[in-house]
């Protein structure tokens, strides 16, 4: 596709359940980012991938959160034993990562997660 | 840690008029980039304008321009000839070498017809 896509668009789950959020970056983009947008915390960085490696996972809020990227393309963010405070919009972005400094990040439409 | 502050939770502007959104940031770095992003109700983050810290000239993109004051660590966005389609949440953001974006809390812009 032409842009970053994320699925599902909306997810409602019960407290304690596990959820998986998917991100398909722009084809050829080597860098991929996850951000979380919540009412109390604003927009915050979660994790960054370069290829399949995650050199910066400093933003993951707890060990219930994990992410992986396979084939240098699709990424999955997994939240285990969801809590109500995990309710937020999860945004994914990708960039070409071809230079060492700045590469524009293109964002997907996000997944709105609601934990009941 | 770098921080970005947007002190205006909400702003209103009359259609065709000009509005300025404020942003300040804190960093010890000398080389970095600053951005304004627009987020309409669709949630899609759209890059509006970017400024490279080593450039003294203020960036301009059509009706959007910035006032970048490096010494004061200030980066405001001016929207001229405001249009109904400009209504959205606007985020100021900072990135340094290493790629992750640090965002401000956002400013909701309402455009009145």
Short descriptors:
heterodimer, A: mainly beta, seven-stranded mixed beta sheet, B: about 110 residues, mainly beta, 12 strands, about 0% helix
Determine the N-to-C terminus distance of chain A: 33 Å
Series of H and E elements of chain A: EEEEEEEEEEE
Helix content of chain A: under 10%
CATH class of chain A: Mainly Beta
Work out the strand percent of chain B: over 45%
**Proper CATH architecture of chain B:** Sandwich
Task: Describe this entry's structure for a reader.
The complex is a heterodimer of chains A (116) and B (113). Chain A has 116 residues and is an all-beta fold. Chain A has one domain: Immunoglobulin-like (Sandwich), CATH 2.60.40. Chain A has strands at residues 5-7, 10-13, 19-24, 31-38, 42-50, 53-56, 65-69, 75-79, 88-95, 106-107, 111-115. In chain A, the strands form two sheets. In chain A, strands 2, 4, 5, 6, 9, 10 and 11 form a seven-stranded mixed β-sheet that branches. Chain B has 113 residues and is an all-beta fold. Chain B has a single domain, classed as Immunoglobulins (Immunoglobulin-like). In chain B, strands 2, 5, 6, 10, 11 and 12 form a six-stranded mixed β-sheet that branches. In chain B, a hairpin with a 6-residue loop joins strand 10 (88-95) and strand 11. Chain B is globular and about 40 Å long. Classes of the chains: A mainly beta (116), B mainly beta (113). The interface between A and B is medium-sized, with 26 and 21 residues.
Condensed summary:
The complex is a heterodimer of chains A (116) and B (113). Chain A is mostly beta strands and 116 residues long. Helix content of chain A is 0%, strand content 51%.
